[in-house]
Design goal:
494 residues; mainly alpha; two-stranded antiparallel sheet; 25 helices; 72% helix; 3% strand
Amino acid sequence: MSGTPLLSLAIWVPILAGFVVLATGSDRNAPLARMLSLVGAVAGLLVTLPLYSGFNLQTPAMQFVELHNWIPRFNITYYLGVDGISMPFIMLNSFITVTVVLAGWQVIGNKVAQYNAGFLIMSGLLNGIFSALDGVLFYVFFEASLIPLYLIIGVWGGPNRVYAAFKFFLFTLMGSLLFLLALLYMFLESGGSFSILDWHQMPLGMAAQKWLFLAFLVAFAVKVPMWPVHTWLPDAHVEAPTGGSIVLAAIALKLGAYGFLRFSLPIVPDAAHHFSGLVIGLSLIAIIYIGFVALVQHDMKKLVAYSSIAHMGFVTLGFFIFNAMGIEGALVQMISHGFVSGAMFFSIGVMYDRAHSRQIADYGGVVNKMPKFAAFFMLFAMANAGLPATSGFVGEFMVILASVDHNFWVAFAAASTMIVGAAYTLWMYKRVVFGAVANHHVAELTDINGREFFIFVLFAIGALGMGLYPQPFTEVMHSSVNELLRHIALSKIQ
């Protein structure tokens, strides 16, 4: 497989499948569109499997590299490659694409081809972000991925979908403009190179590093999202269809965090150290304050949306304590959050499809009518609360341990999520699932069908497998994380 362009296949197979699905046309061909979408999503997943099986664990160098001229006049290239930091997210994204196609199988009844094509095309664009090693190529994928998600929220979302879609687009566009200016500055300073790896070796003065870091911070903080630029996320989640919420939480939120590792830490390491206190402070606000905000929510989707902000606070905290266990714990948390948050939003979608409400007060006693669903929902609620033996525990525990070495009080503040996270998650679960049947809407509920059961099993394998045996996920990260920290340390010394 060494000569096979695996990364190009991971990008273009789902994109081409998306255009094939679009060609099926109107909803008269909806069954064909669904089937082609599933075939395209599964094919997109299968072409990523050799990335893991053929990955060399011993080297931090970029692997599966592809390099071709694209726009020679400006030295812009089609330059792809992955390391132990980026490769797991391509596999996670391709896995999530399969689940969202299945999740909308019976639920989406209008514009079926367009809906599924949006997810397939977005899947390829997201894989492009995680594998691009040319600054312009990265930016093109980074911006293009907004368009399908914007349309998915704006066309198939709830009553306020247009407002939520515009807010999502404007917030992310604001940060992206600063990111573009930073890319152009680095192109000029590097003597005309758009290679991200060249930028990693580029000597920059402290003043330039500070300005670049702030530009990166705004661009990536909006994507994470960090407090206080997080307000677009609850609106987007509440209005998005179930599949849109799954992709938004499982993959799209990871783009900002990935940007910190690919740009902020290696390109401007001295400024990253200088501003680390600021980022750690914002991360702790997200973990603690946003956790309490989640505690008072009445809408289940909004509660899980706020919990996502709190969980991503662990990610940025882990990055900026400059510790191998902290960065690896943050990466594990990102992957775990993909499984757990995706499962939580799918669980809420299952109830919404039956009762057409996301309000906690409209439920109660669901276990009496949906026992299989209640069992799966319990598993994912526990994982969201960070129960040991689930994936939700591993990453948070690693970051907390790493934080102890950095500063005990930072670790103590971060560990408060173990209490607050359990409070908002389990209190929601208790009110929705336990007790007597609350009303006739709950009395009419039916348990999950075979398709929904299969999706839950996929998510459960991810959440439990990673919680019980995280080594297959962590071992691919070691070399790349250690090399990143070595690069940062050398830069600081010089």
